Amino acid sequence: MVPTGPVGKRARLANTGSCRLLSIVIPALDAEAELGATIAALAPASGLAREIVVADGGSADKTVVLAERLGARIVDSAHGRGRQLIAGAAAAKGDWLLFLHADTRLSTGWQAEVADFIAQPENAERVGIFRFVLDDEAAPARRLERIAGWRGRRLGLPYGDQGLLIARVFYDAIGGYRPLALMEDVALVRRIGRRRLIWLETAAVTSARRYREGGYLLRPARNLLCLALYFLGLPTRLIARLYA
Fold first, then answer.
1. Is residue 150 included in any domain, yes or no?
2. How far apart are CA 191 and CA 210, in angstroms?
3. Sign of CA dihedral 72, 75, 79, 85
């Protein structure tokens, strides 16, 4: 008989550490150019079963065709990353969830580190965050990586492009992602709390295209402004207009 109440909850959380089914949830929208490399980097490994769930927000390109060809399961969702993450998580079958952006590739060896994280019972109520890296050799990219590392570790505010590894039971217990127009990642990690964030060695290599196009100064400045407006209580639908 499975115990109920707080004791039962702790037992169920601890048991998730023995589960080896990992659901990788990827929200996508017109991501044909980058999704292929992201999925290719998610090759399965012995001892770690995984499924890939692509939550598509209405792509007009070949995102869906590409994802299906590469073995992913497609979930149709309303447009908006928060809504897509919710839909993908709801459809996922694993007892562990790994949320990953469509333009972010996990570096070689991620499977071993993720399997080790999952196997440790104390991580049932903690969250794994990957190391933010940009696919650009320019010096401004290195500076931005250092800023992202400081923001995540000192302020407890990693962004979604660093990936997020979490037990399903814990994800449900804290209410999961919310259908926000923007800042869905910040809203979630604030509920998790800085002390429950664990920094992994695996790099989450993210496309620097938006920084090259928007500027290594202007783009982060706009992101910081959006974050400040969020903390000031401005509705995310209004912040999203500035972000876009």
1. yes
2. 28
3. negative
Q: Which residues of the chain have pLDDT under 70?
A: 1-20
Q: Which residues contact 127 (CB under 8 A, 6 or more apart)?
A: 164, 165, 166, 170, 189, 192, 196, 197, 198
pLDDT at position 243, please? 84
CA distance 192 to 63: 31
Position 16 scores a pLDDT of: 41
CA distance 134 to 26: 18
Number of domains in the chain: 1
Residue pLDDT, tens place only, 119-146: 999 999 999 999 999 999 999 999 999 9
Cβ burial of 30 (10 Å; 0-12, 13-18, 19+) is middle
Say whether 235 sits in a helix, a strand or coil.
coil
Residues 206, 41: Cα–Cα separation, whole Å: 12
Q: Find the domain containing 75 and state its range.
A: 5-214
- How far apart, in whole angstroms, are the C-alpha atoms of residue 171 and residue 29? 24
Q: pLDDT digits over 49-79, tens only?
A: 999 999 999 999 999 999 999 999 999 999 9
The verdict on residue 225 lying in a domain is no
Tokens 């149709």 sit on residue: 76
Single-letter amino acid code for the residue at 121 = P
CA pair distance 208, 142, nearest whole angstrom? 11
